[in-house]
Amino acid sequence: MKKTPAASRVVMTETVLPGDGNPVGTAFGGKIAQWIDVAAAIACQRHCRERVVTASMDDLHFLRPIRVGMIVELRAQVNAAFRTSMEAGCGSRARTRSAGNGSMCVRRS
């Protein structure tokens, strides 16, 4: 049975709380990386129906600041699957509570 990337798709939403931010009011990069790792792991677990661990991250690009109080939407999916490993991609969009649309803030592959 062939699995599609859509079958592993995950949408996760988080709010940047004061404890997730630094003194200048933006989110800690490590907190965003943690959320990305969790979303990607869930996508991989959906794909293989087994426990997974993150072995490495190719790159992580912070495109614009994510401020305390913003809502972050993370979208992850499995892009490729091999015999003993998988590759997942994850992107995130951040928006204020009052805005209807958001902008891409972080990309991971």
How would you briefly describe this protein structure?
With 109 residues, this protein is of the alpha+beta class.
Describe the structure in your own words.
- This protein is α+β, with helices and mostly antiparallel strands.
- It has a single domain (5-108), classed as Thiol Ester Dehydrase, Chain A (Roll).
- Helices cover 18% and strands 33% of the residues.
- It has one helix and five strands.
- It has one helix at 29-48; strands spanning 10-15, 60-62, 71-81, 86-95, 103-108.
- Strands 1-3-4-5-2 form a five-stranded antiparallel beta sheet, covered by helices on one side.
- The longest helix has 20 residues, at 29-48.
- The radius of gyration is 15 Å and the shape is elongated.
- The two termini are 25 Å apart.
Q: Secondary-structure blueprint of this entry?
A:
Layout: E1 10-15, H1 29-48, E2 60-62, E3 71-81, E4 86-95, E5 103-108
Task: Write out key terms for the chains shown.
109 residues; alpha+beta; 5-stranded antiparallel sheet; 5 strands; elongated
CATH topology: Thiol Ester Dehydrase, Chain A
Number of helices: 1
Overall average pLDDT: 90
Q: What percent of residues adopt helix (DSSP H or I)?
A: 10-25%
Broad CATH class:
Alpha Beta
Number of structural domains: 1
Radius of gyration: 15 Å
Distance from N terminus to C terminus (CA atoms, Å) equals 25 Å
- Number of E strands: 5
Q: What is the ordering of alpha helices and beta strands?
A: EHEEEE
CATH architecture: Roll
Largest sheet: 5 strands, antiparallel
The percent range for strand residues is: 25-35%
CATH superfamily: Hotdog Thioesterase
